[in-house]
Amino acid sequence: MTAERRRQDRTRRPAPRKQGPRRPPVHDPARRAAFDVLRAISDRDAYANLVLPELLRERRITGRDAALATELTYGTARAQGLLDEIIAACLDRPLEKVDRAVLDGLRLGSYQLLRTRIPHHAAVASTVDLVREEAGSHVAGFANAVLRKVSEKDEQEWLAELAPDPETDPIGNLALRTAHPRWIARAFAESLGDKGAELEAALRADDARPAVHLLARPGEISAEELAAVTAGEVAPYSPYGVHLPAGTGDLTESEPIRQGLATVQDEGSQLVAVAATEVGLTGAGDSRWLDLAAGPGGKAVLLGALAALSGAELDAVEKAPHRARLVRRVTEGLPVTVHVADGRDPGLAAGYDRVLLDAPCSGLGSLRRRPEARWRKEPSDIPDLTRLQGELLGSAIRLLRTGGVVTYVVCTPHLAETEGVISDAVRRNDGVVEVVDAREFFPGVPDLGEGPYVQLWPHRHGTDAMFCAMLRKL
Ligand SMILES: C[S@@+](CC[C@H](N)C(=O)[O-])C[C@H]1O[C@@H](n2cnc3c(N)ncnc32)[C@H](O)[C@@H]1O
Protein backbone atom coordinates (compact mmCIF):
# COMPACT_ATOMS: atom_id res chain seq x y z
CA MET A 1 0.00 0.00 0.00
CA THR A 2 1.44 3.41 -0.91
CA ALA A 3 1.99 6.10 1.72
CA GLU A 4 -0.57 8.30 -0.04
CA ARG A 5 -3.16 5.53 -0.05
CA ARG A 6 -2.47 4.86 3.63
CA ARG A 7 -2.90 8.55 4.42
CA GLN A 8 -6.23 8.70 2.62
CA ASP A 9 -7.40 5.56 4.35
CA ARG A 10 -6.59 6.94 7.76
CA THR A 11 -8.95 9.82 7.21
CA ARG A 12 -11.78 7.73 5.78
CA ARG A 13 -14.34 5.96 7.84
CA PRO A 14 -14.24 2.17 7.69
CA ALA A 15 -15.73 1.00 4.41
CA PRO A 16 -18.65 -1.37 4.65
CA ARG A 17 -17.69 -4.97 3.89
CA LYS A 18 -18.57 -5.70 0.31
CA GLN A 19 -19.23 -9.41 0.61
CA GLY A 20 -20.73 -11.46 3.36
CA PRO A 21 -24.00 -11.42 5.19
CA ARG A 22 -26.20 -8.35 5.27
CA ARG A 23 -26.13 -6.55 8.54
CA PRO A 24 -29.32 -6.45 10.58
CA PRO A 25 -30.26 -3.09 12.11
CA VAL A 26 -27.75 -1.93 14.68
CA HIS A 27 -29.02 -2.65 18.20
CA ASP A 28 -25.72 -1.99 19.86
CA PRO A 29 -24.24 1.15 18.29
CA ALA A 30 -21.37 1.50 20.79
CA ARG A 31 -19.94 -1.97 20.28
CA ARG A 32 -20.61 -1.83 16.54
CA ALA A 33 -18.64 1.43 16.35
CA ALA A 34 -15.77 0.01 18.40
CA PHE A 35 -15.70 -3.11 16.25
CA ASP A 36 -15.70 -1.12 13.00
CA VAL A 37 -12.80 1.04 14.19
CA LEU A 38 -10.84 -2.04 15.26
CA ARG A 39 -11.45 -3.50 11.80
CA ALA A 40 -10.17 -0.31 10.18
CA ILE A 41 -7.07 -0.41 12.40
CA SER A 42 -6.24 -4.00 11.42
CA ASP A 43 -7.22 -3.84 7.77
CA ARG A 44 -6.08 -0.41 6.73
CA ASP A 45 -3.60 0.86 9.31
CA ALA A 46 -6.18 3.45 10.38
CA TYR A 47 -5.66 5.63 13.44
CA ALA A 48 -8.29 5.21 16.14
CA ASN A 49 -8.13 8.85 17.19
CA LEU A 50 -9.01 9.96 13.66
CA VAL A 51 -11.54 7.30 12.65
CA LEU A 52 -13.54 7.02 15.87
CA PRO A 53 -14.61 10.68 16.32
CA GLU A 54 -15.64 10.86 12.66
CA LEU A 55 -17.61 7.64 12.90
CA LEU A 56 -19.37 8.78 16.10
CA ARG A 57 -20.31 12.04 14.40
CA GLU A 58 -21.58 10.33 11.26
CA ARG A 59 -23.67 7.79 13.15
CA ARG A 60 -24.83 10.42 15.65
CA ILE A 61 -23.62 8.35 18.57
CA THR A 62 -23.47 10.54 21.66
CA GLY A 63 -23.55 10.43 25.47
CA ARG A 64 -23.11 7.08 27.16
CA ASP A 65 -22.90 5.16 23.89
CA ALA A 66 -20.08 7.41 22.67
CA ALA A 67 -18.26 7.02 25.98
CA LEU A 68 -18.62 3.23 25.82
CA ALA A 69 -17.48 3.09 22.19
CA THR A 70 -14.41 5.19 23.06
CA GLU A 71 -13.52 3.09 26.10
CA LEU A 72 -13.90 -0.18 24.18
CA THR A 73 -11.99 1.00 21.10
CA TYR A 74 -9.06 2.61 22.89
CA GLY A 75 -8.87 -0.03 25.60
CA THR A 76 -8.92 -2.94 23.15
CA ALA A 77 -6.42 -1.33 20.77
CA ARG A 78 -4.04 -0.49 23.60
CA ALA A 79 -4.15 -3.98 25.14
CA GLN A 80 -3.99 -5.86 21.83
CA GLY A 81 -0.77 -7.82 22.47
CA LEU A 82 -1.87 -8.93 25.92
CA LEU A 83 -5.32 -9.91 24.65
CA ASP A 84 -3.73 -11.88 21.80
CA GLU A 85 -1.57 -13.89 24.22
CA ILE A 86 -4.65 -14.79 26.25
CA ILE A 87 -6.73 -15.62 23.19
CA ALA A 88 -3.87 -17.75 21.81
CA ALA A 89 -3.86 -19.74 25.06
CA CYS A 90 -7.55 -20.59 24.43
CA LEU A 91 -7.09 -21.79 20.84
CA ASP A 92 -6.27 -25.17 19.40
CA ARG A 93 -4.66 -23.54 16.34
CA PRO A 94 -2.14 -20.71 15.86
CA LEU A 95 -3.56 -17.21 16.31
CA GLU A 96 -2.40 -16.31 12.78
CA LYS A 97 -4.88 -18.84 11.37
CA VAL A 98 -7.87 -17.01 12.85
CA ASP A 99 -9.81 -14.83 10.37
CA ARG A 100 -8.88 -11.15 11.00
CA ALA A 101 -12.49 -10.05 11.54
CA VAL A 102 -13.08 -12.87 14.01
CA LEU A 103 -9.84 -12.03 15.82
CA ASP A 104 -10.88 -8.38 16.15
CA GLY A 105 -14.17 -9.59 17.63
CA LEU A 106 -12.34 -11.87 20.06
CA ARG A 107 -10.11 -8.98 21.13
CA LEU A 108 -13.13 -6.74 21.73
CA GLY A 109 -14.94 -9.45 23.68
CA SER A 110 -11.86 -10.38 25.72
CA TYR A 111 -11.24 -6.75 26.61
CA GLN A 112 -14.77 -6.48 27.98
CA LEU A 113 -14.36 -9.72 29.93
CA LEU A 114 -10.99 -8.87 31.42
CA ARG A 115 -10.87 -5.12 31.81
CA THR A 116 -14.43 -3.84 32.24
CA ARG A 117 -17.32 -4.51 34.59
CA ILE A 118 -19.61 -5.51 31.74
CA PRO A 119 -21.38 -8.75 32.78
CA HIS A 120 -19.79 -11.77 31.12
CA HIS A 121 -22.95 -12.98 29.40
CA ALA A 122 -23.45 -9.52 27.80
CA ALA A 123 -19.81 -9.32 26.68
CA VAL A 124 -19.92 -12.79 25.11
CA ALA A 125 -23.37 -12.54 23.51
CA SER A 126 -22.81 -9.08 22.03
CA THR A 127 -19.44 -10.09 20.59
CA VAL A 128 -20.77 -13.30 19.10
CA ASP A 129 -23.52 -11.24 17.44
CA LEU A 130 -20.96 -8.88 15.91
CA VAL A 131 -18.78 -11.73 14.68
CA ARG A 132 -21.83 -13.45 13.17
CA GLU A 133 -22.89 -10.26 11.38
CA GLU A 134 -19.38 -9.67 10.07
CA ALA A 135 -18.07 -13.12 9.25
CA GLY A 136 -21.11 -15.43 9.10
CA SER A 137 -22.93 -17.86 11.39
CA HIS A 138 -20.37 -20.63 10.85
CA VAL A 139 -17.87 -18.85 13.13
CA ALA A 140 -20.32 -17.91 15.90
CA GLY A 141 -19.85 -21.19 17.77
CA PHE A 142 -16.07 -20.85 17.61
CA ALA A 143 -16.15 -17.25 18.93
CA ASN A 144 -18.53 -18.28 21.69
CA ALA A 145 -16.28 -21.18 22.76
CA VAL A 146 -13.09 -19.07 22.81
CA LEU A 147 -14.70 -16.26 24.79
CA ARG A 148 -16.10 -18.70 27.33
CA LYS A 149 -12.57 -20.02 27.86
CA VAL A 150 -11.19 -16.48 28.21
CA SER A 151 -13.87 -15.76 30.82
CA GLU A 152 -12.78 -18.68 33.01
CA LYS A 153 -9.98 -16.57 34.52
CA ASP A 154 -9.61 -12.90 35.34
CA GLU A 155 -6.71 -10.79 34.05
CA GLN A 156 -4.51 -11.43 37.08
CA GLU A 157 -5.01 -15.18 36.83
CA TRP A 158 -4.13 -15.11 33.14
CA LEU A 159 -1.03 -13.03 33.87
CA ALA A 160 0.05 -15.44 36.60
CA GLU A 161 -0.13 -18.20 34.02
CA LEU A 162 1.35 -16.41 31.00
CA ALA A 163 3.75 -13.68 32.19
CA PRO A 164 7.47 -14.51 32.27
CA ASP A 165 9.10 -15.01 35.68
CA PRO A 166 9.76 -11.56 37.19
CA GLU A 167 13.02 -12.77 38.76
CA THR A 168 14.66 -13.97 35.56
CA ASP A 169 12.83 -11.74 33.05
CA PRO A 170 11.62 -8.58 34.82
CA ILE A 171 11.22 -6.59 31.59
CA GLY A 172 9.22 -9.34 29.86
CA ASN A 173 7.04 -9.66 32.94
CA LEU A 174 6.27 -5.93 33.14
CA ALA A 175 5.83 -5.70 29.38
CA LEU A 176 3.01 -8.25 29.42
CA ARG A 177 1.46 -6.89 32.64
CA THR A 178 1.25 -3.40 31.15
CA ALA A 179 0.41 -4.55 27.61
CA HIS A 180 3.57 -3.27 25.93
CA PRO A 181 5.74 -4.99 23.33
CA ARG A 182 8.89 -6.25 25.01
CA TRP A 183 11.25 -4.12 22.88
CA ILE A 184 9.45 -0.94 23.90
CA ALA A 185 9.55 -1.91 27.58
CA ARG A 186 13.29 -2.58 27.15
CA ALA A 187 13.80 0.85 25.52
CA PHE A 188 12.04 2.51 28.48
CA ALA A 189 14.14 0.46 30.95
CA GLU A 190 17.39 1.45 29.25
CA SER A 191 16.48 5.12 29.27
CA LEU A 192 15.35 5.06 32.91
CA GLY A 193 18.21 2.81 34.03
CA ASP A 194 15.62 0.78 35.93
CA LYS A 195 13.89 -2.58 35.52
CA GLY A 196 11.79 -2.38 38.64
CA ALA A 197 9.41 0.04 40.30
CA GLU A 198 10.16 3.06 38.12
CA LEU A 199 9.89 1.07 34.90
CA GLU A 200 6.54 -0.23 36.09
CA ALA A 201 5.36 3.31 36.92
CA ALA A 202 6.46 4.53 33.47
CA LEU A 203 4.73 1.69 31.62
CA ARG A 204 1.57 2.06 33.68
CA ALA A 205 1.42 5.82 33.04
CA ASP A 206 1.93 5.05 29.35
CA ASP A 207 -1.05 2.71 29.49
CA ALA A 208 -3.43 5.23 31.09
CA ARG A 209 -5.62 7.66 29.21
CA PRO A 210 -3.89 11.02 29.31
CA ALA A 211 -5.36 14.37 30.29
CA VAL A 212 -6.03 16.70 27.36
CA HIS A 213 -3.57 19.62 27.30
CA LEU A 214 -4.34 22.94 25.68
CA LEU A 215 -1.98 25.69 24.60
CA ALA A 216 -3.22 29.21 25.34
CA ARG A 217 -1.75 31.07 22.38
CA PRO A 218 0.62 33.74 23.70
CA GLY A 219 -0.65 37.23 22.92
CA GLU A 220 -4.24 35.92 22.46
CA ILE A 221 -5.34 34.56 25.81
CA SER A 222 -3.68 33.75 29.13
CA ALA A 223 -3.61 30.24 30.61
CA GLU A 224 -5.74 31.51 33.51
CA GLU A 225 -8.40 32.92 31.16
CA LEU A 226 -8.39 29.74 29.06
CA ALA A 227 -8.71 27.58 32.18
CA ALA A 228 -11.70 29.68 33.27
CA VAL A 229 -13.56 29.37 29.96
CA THR A 230 -12.85 25.66 29.50
CA ALA A 231 -13.38 24.68 33.16
CA GLY A 232 -9.84 23.28 33.05
CA GLU A 233 -6.83 23.75 35.30
CA VAL A 234 -3.75 25.83 34.71
CA ALA A 235 -0.89 23.46 33.86
CA PRO A 236 1.79 22.95 36.51
CA TYR A 237 4.85 23.84 34.39
CA SER A 238 4.08 25.46 31.05
CA PRO A 239 3.19 29.16 31.35
CA TYR A 240 0.75 28.65 28.45
CA GLY A 241 -0.76 25.29 29.40
CA VAL A 242 -4.21 24.21 30.54
CA HIS A 243 -5.21 20.66 31.50
CA LEU A 244 -8.63 19.18 30.85
CA PRO A 245 -9.67 15.82 32.33
CA ALA A 246 -8.80 12.59 30.48
CA GLY A 247 -11.62 11.54 28.19
CA THR A 248 -12.68 15.10 27.34
CA GLY A 249 -14.41 14.53 24.01
CA ASP A 250 -13.98 16.11 20.61
CA LEU A 251 -12.70 19.66 21.11
CA THR A 252 -12.86 20.91 17.53
CA GLU A 253 -16.14 22.70 18.23
CA SER A 254 -15.01 24.30 21.48
CA GLU A 255 -15.14 28.12 21.31
CA PRO A 256 -11.51 29.01 22.17
CA ILE A 257 -10.25 26.50 19.58
CA ARG A 258 -12.67 27.65 16.89
CA GLN A 259 -11.63 31.26 17.53
CA GLY A 260 -7.92 30.38 17.23
CA LEU A 261 -7.15 31.32 20.84
CA ALA A 262 -6.06 27.83 21.84
CA THR A 263 -4.86 24.57 20.33
CA VAL A 264 -4.52 21.05 21.68
CA GLN A 265 -0.86 20.46 22.58
CA ASP A 266 0.87 18.25 25.10
CA GLU A 267 2.49 20.24 27.91
CA GLY A 268 5.85 18.58 27.13
CA SER A 269 5.74 20.00 23.59
CA GLN A 270 5.01 23.43 25.03
CA LEU A 271 7.93 23.17 27.45
CA VAL A 272 10.51 22.23 24.81
CA ALA A 273 9.35 24.98 22.43
CA VAL A 274 9.47 27.58 25.21
CA ALA A 275 12.92 26.31 26.25
CA ALA A 276 14.13 26.75 22.66
CA THR A 277 13.19 30.45 22.87
CA GLU A 278 14.70 30.95 26.34
CA VAL A 279 18.11 29.30 26.04
CA GLY A 280 20.90 31.89 26.30
CA LEU A 281 22.76 32.86 23.11
CA THR A 282 26.19 34.42 22.94
CA GLY A 283 26.95 37.30 20.58
CA ALA A 284 24.51 39.75 19.07
CA GLY A 285 21.18 39.02 17.45
CA ASP A 286 18.03 37.12 18.33
CA SER A 287 15.64 37.75 15.49
CA ARG A 288 16.08 34.83 13.03
CA TRP A 289 14.48 31.64 14.24
CA LEU A 290 14.09 28.37 12.37
CA ASP A 291 11.79 25.37 12.88
CA LEU A 292 13.45 22.70 10.73
CA ALA A 293 10.76 19.97 10.85
CA ALA A 294 7.61 21.94 11.39
CA GLY A 295 4.60 19.92 10.23
CA PRO A 296 1.81 19.92 11.26
CA GLY A 297 2.76 23.10 13.07
CA GLY A 298 2.05 22.62 16.77
CA LYS A 299 5.36 24.05 17.91
CA ALA A 300 5.53 26.54 15.03
CA VAL A 301 2.37 28.17 16.44
CA LEU A 302 3.98 28.64 19.83
CA LEU A 303 7.35 29.74 18.40
CA GLY A 304 5.60 32.08 15.95
CA ALA A 305 3.50 33.65 18.71
CA LEU A 306 6.57 34.15 20.91
CA ALA A 307 8.52 35.49 17.91
CA ALA A 308 5.75 38.04 17.32
CA LEU A 309 5.99 39.20 20.94
CA SER A 310 9.79 39.53 20.81
CA GLY A 311 10.18 41.02 17.33
CA ALA A 312 11.69 37.88 15.77
CA GLU A 313 10.74 36.02 12.57
CA LEU A 314 10.40 32.29 12.11
CA ASP A 315 11.17 30.20 9.06
CA ALA A 316 9.33 26.89 9.17
CA VAL A 317 10.61 24.03 6.99
CA GLU A 318 8.53 20.95 6.22
CA LYS A 319 9.22 18.30 3.60
CA ALA A 320 5.69 16.98 3.09
CA PRO A 321 3.59 19.50 1.11
CA HIS A 322 0.29 18.58 2.80
CA ARG A 323 1.85 19.04 6.23
CA ALA A 324 3.42 22.33 5.14
CA ARG A 325 -0.10 23.49 4.20
CA LEU A 326 -1.23 22.69 7.75
CA VAL A 327 1.65 24.76 9.14
CA ARG A 328 0.66 27.66 6.90
CA ARG A 329 -2.94 27.42 8.06
CA VAL A 330 -2.22 27.32 11.80
CA THR A 331 0.42 30.09 11.71
CA GLU A 332 -1.64 32.55 9.68
CA GLY A 333 -1.21 36.07 11.05
CA LEU A 334 2.10 35.23 12.75
CA PRO A 335 5.59 36.24 11.50
CA VAL A 336 6.15 32.78 10.05
CA THR A 337 7.33 31.87 6.53
CA VAL A 338 6.70 28.27 5.54
CA HIS A 339 9.11 26.49 3.15
CA VAL A 340 8.38 23.15 1.55
CA ALA A 341 11.89 21.73 1.58
CA ASP A 342 14.10 18.95 2.86
CA GLY A 343 15.57 20.13 6.15
CA ARG A 344 18.83 18.38 5.32
CA ASP A 345 19.44 21.00 2.65
CA PRO A 346 16.61 23.53 2.73
CA GLY A 347 18.32 26.18 0.59
CA LEU A 348 18.03 28.86 3.29
CA ALA A 349 20.80 31.32 4.15
CA ALA A 350 22.75 30.30 7.25
CA GLY A 351 23.04 32.57 10.29
CA TYR A 352 20.02 31.60 12.42
CA ASP A 353 20.05 32.63 16.07
CA ARG A 354 17.84 29.76 17.19
CA VAL A 355 16.92 26.49 15.52
CA LEU A 356 14.33 24.03 16.80
CA LEU A 357 14.76 20.56 15.34
CA ASP A 358 11.70 18.54 16.38
CA ALA A 359 12.91 15.56 14.43
CA PRO A 360 10.87 12.72 12.90
CA CYS A 361 11.09 9.90 15.46
CA SER A 362 9.62 6.60 16.58
CA GLY A 363 7.08 8.42 18.79
CA LEU A 364 7.53 5.93 21.63
CA GLY A 365 7.01 8.86 24.00
CA SER A 366 3.43 9.56 22.96
CA LEU A 367 2.02 6.02 22.77
CA ARG A 368 -0.63 6.85 25.37
CA ARG A 369 -2.23 9.26 22.90
CA ARG A 370 -2.30 6.74 20.03
CA PRO A 371 -3.71 3.51 21.33
CA GLU A 372 -2.84 1.21 18.44
CA ALA A 373 0.66 2.64 17.82
CA ARG A 374 2.66 0.42 20.15
CA TRP A 375 1.67 -2.74 18.25
CA ARG A 376 2.54 -1.25 14.88
CA LYS A 377 6.05 0.00 15.48
CA GLU A 378 9.09 -2.21 15.00
CA PRO A 379 12.64 -2.07 16.35
CA SER A 380 13.75 -2.15 12.71
CA ASP A 381 12.22 1.38 12.32
CA ILE A 382 14.96 2.87 14.50
CA PRO A 383 18.15 2.81 12.34
CA ASP A 384 16.58 4.77 9.44
CA LEU A 385 15.21 7.29 11.90
CA THR A 386 18.52 7.85 13.70
CA ARG A 387 20.25 8.34 10.35
CA LEU A 388 17.71 11.00 9.33
CA GLN A 389 17.84 12.63 12.79
CA GLY A 390 21.65 12.86 12.56
CA GLU A 391 21.52 14.36 9.07
CA LEU A 392 18.91 16.92 10.07
CA LEU A 393 20.91 17.84 13.16
CA GLY A 394 24.05 18.31 11.03
CA SER A 395 22.06 20.65 8.81
CA ALA A 396 20.70 22.56 11.83
CA ILE A 397 24.24 23.12 13.10
CA ARG A 398 25.38 24.40 9.68
CA LEU A 399 22.46 26.84 9.60
CA LEU A 400 23.27 28.40 13.01
CA ARG A 401 25.35 31.51 13.52
CA THR A 402 28.26 31.40 15.93
CA GLY A 403 26.78 31.67 19.43
CA GLY A 404 23.38 30.41 18.25
CA VAL A 405 21.70 27.35 19.76
CA VAL A 406 19.95 24.34 18.24
CA THR A 407 17.33 22.66 20.41
CA TYR A 408 17.02 19.00 19.40
CA VAL A 409 13.72 17.41 20.37
CA VAL A 410 12.25 13.95 19.87
CA CYS A 411 9.12 12.45 21.37
CA THR A 412 10.76 9.23 22.45
CA PRO A 413 13.01 8.03 25.25
CA HIS A 414 14.77 5.49 22.98
CA LEU A 415 18.48 6.04 23.70
CA ALA A 416 19.54 5.59 20.07
CA GLU A 417 17.28 8.50 19.05
CA THR A 418 18.15 10.68 22.04
CA GLU A 419 21.64 10.53 23.54
CA GLY A 420 22.95 8.41 20.66
CA VAL A 421 22.13 11.03 18.01
CA ILE A 422 23.51 13.84 20.17
CA SER A 423 26.79 12.16 21.08
CA ASP A 424 27.33 11.28 17.44
CA ALA A 425 26.71 14.92 16.40
CA VAL A 426 29.01 16.24 19.13
CA ARG A 427 31.75 13.84 17.99
CA ARG A 428 31.35 14.81 14.34
CA ASN A 429 31.30 18.51 15.23
CA ASP A 430 34.16 18.46 17.70
CA GLY A 431 35.24 22.04 18.37
CA VAL A 432 32.16 23.36 16.50
CA VAL A 433 29.47 22.88 19.17
CA GLU A 434 29.24 22.66 22.94
CA VAL A 435 26.48 20.97 24.91
CA VAL A 436 24.29 23.35 26.93
CA ASP A 437 22.67 22.06 30.13
CA ALA A 438 19.04 22.09 29.02
CA ARG A 439 17.61 21.69 32.54
CA GLU A 440 18.08 25.40 33.27
CA PHE A 441 15.44 26.25 30.67
CA PHE A 442 12.76 24.09 32.26
CA PRO A 443 12.25 26.20 35.40
CA GLY A 444 10.15 24.61 38.11
CA VAL A 445 10.08 21.19 36.44
CA PRO A 446 11.22 18.58 39.00
CA ASP A 447 13.06 15.26 38.53
CA LEU A 448 15.17 16.24 35.55
CA GLY A 449 18.09 14.04 36.60
CA GLU A 450 21.73 14.88 36.19
CA GLY A 451 21.55 16.62 32.83
CA PRO A 452 22.76 17.97 30.53
CA TYR A 453 19.76 16.64 28.60
CA VAL A 454 16.12 16.69 29.63
CA GLN A 455 13.94 13.61 29.40
CA LEU A 456 10.33 14.25 30.37
CA TRP A 457 8.12 11.30 31.39
CA PRO A 458 4.39 10.70 31.77
CA HIS A 459 4.84 9.17 35.25
CA ARG A 460 7.06 12.01 36.49
CA HIS A 461 5.69 15.06 34.71
CA GLY A 462 2.32 14.08 33.27
CA THR A 463 3.68 14.94 29.80
CA ASP A 464 4.59 12.84 26.80
CA ALA A 465 8.12 11.39 27.07
CA MET A 466 9.85 14.23 25.20
CA PHE A 467 13.63 14.44 25.01
CA CYS A 468 15.44 17.76 24.66
CA ALA A 469 19.14 18.52 24.09
CA MET A 470 20.75 21.87 23.31
CA LEU A 471 23.94 22.54 21.35
CA ARG A 472 25.57 25.96 21.05
CA LYS A 473 27.71 26.73 18.01
CA LEU A 474 31.20 27.89 18.93
C1 LIG B 1 7.94 15.21 14.87
S1 LIG B 1 7.22 15.91 13.47
C2 LIG B 1 7.28 17.61 13.84
C3 LIG B 1 6.13 18.06 14.71
C4 LIG B 1 5.97 19.56 14.73
N1 LIG B 1 7.19 20.21 15.15
C5 LIG B 1 4.84 19.98 15.63
O1 LIG B 1 5.08 20.37 16.78
O2 LIG B 1 3.68 19.93 15.16
C6 LIG B 1 8.45 15.77 12.25
C7 LIG B 1 8.10 16.39 10.91
O3 LIG B 1 9.26 16.32 10.10
C8 LIG B 1 8.85 16.13 8.76
N2 LIG B 1 10.03 15.64 8.02
C9 LIG B 1 10.43 14.37 7.81
N3 LIG B 1 11.57 14.35 7.11
C10 LIG B 1 11.90 15.64 6.90
C11 LIG B 1 12.97 16.27 6.21
N4 LIG B 1 13.93 15.55 5.64
N5 LIG B 1 12.97 17.61 6.16
C12 LIG B 1 12.00 18.35 6.74
N6 LIG B 1 10.96 17.81 7.38
C13 LIG B 1 10.91 16.46 7.46
C14 LIG B 1 7.70 15.16 8.88
O4 LIG B 1 6.90 15.23 7.72
C15 LIG B 1 7.01 15.69 10.12
O5 LIG B 1 6.03 16.61 9.77
UniProtKB/TrEMBL annotation:
It is an enzyme of class 2 (transferase). The keyword RNA-binding applies. Its EC number is 2.1.1.176. One of its GO terms (biological process) is regulation of DNA-templated transcription. Residues 1-29 are annotated as: Disordered. S-adenosyl-L-methionine binds at A293, A294, G295, P296, G297, G298, K299, E318, D342, D358. Keywords: Methyltransferase, RNA-binding, S-adenosyl-L-methionine, Transferase. The active site is at C411. Pfam families: Methyltr_RsmB-F, NusB. One of its GO terms (molecular function) is RNA binding. Residues 188-474 form the SAM-dependent MTase RsmB/NOP-type domain. Gene3D superfamilies: NusB-like, Vaccinia Virus protein VP39. Residues 8-21 have a biased composition (Basic residues). This is 16S rRNA (Cytosine967-C5)-methyltransferase. It comes from Saccharomonospora amisosensis.
